[in-house]
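Provenance

Sequences were taken from public entries as deposited. Structures were produced by running a predictor on each sequence independently, with no templates supplied. The record for SnoaL-like domain-containing protein from Planomonospora alba is shown for reference.
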Amino acid sequence: MNGTDAALIRTFYDALARRDLTAMEDCYHPEATFGDPIFQELEGRDLIMGMWRMQLSRGADLDVTLADVTAAPHAVTARWSAGYTFTSTGRRVVNHVDSLFRFEDGLIVRHHDEFDFKRWSKMALGRPVGLVVGWTPAFRARIRDRARQRLEQTMAAA
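Predicted structure for SnoaL-like domain-containing protein:
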C-alpha cells in the first residue's frame, strides 16, 4: 500500500463535501460494497451511489469534515464528521464516523462506516425519545426499514 489509496480517500471526501456525485462514483469499484449501522450491506456501485444520491438530496445543509486519513498495509481508515439537519425532526445532527476502506484496481471495493447509533438517535430525535428508545433493536430495525424504502424509491426514480 502506498499513499495512492489514502489520496483516493481524500478525493472521495472532498467530492462528498462538494456534493459531487460523479467524482464520488469515480472512486468506487463497480463491485464495491458498503455497510454502516443503517444501510447494513449495499452491494454494487449503483446501489451505493443511489444511497449517496438520496442522502445528498435530503441533506441540503450537509457539512463534511475529514479529520484524519491513515494508510495501513491493506486498508485505509478515515475519521470524519457529517453535520446536517435530520429531516424527520428538523434537529441538527453532528455524526462522527470511523471508516474503513479496502481497494481493488486502485478503487474502493469495500467501504464500511461505524458511528454511535445511540448518540445519533439522541441528536436526531431529541430527549426523551432518542434516549429511551433510540438504542433499541426494534427502533434500529424501523430506521433501517425506512431508509431502505427511501433508497428503493430513489433507485426507481433514477
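The chain has one domain: 3-115.
The mean pLDDT is 92.
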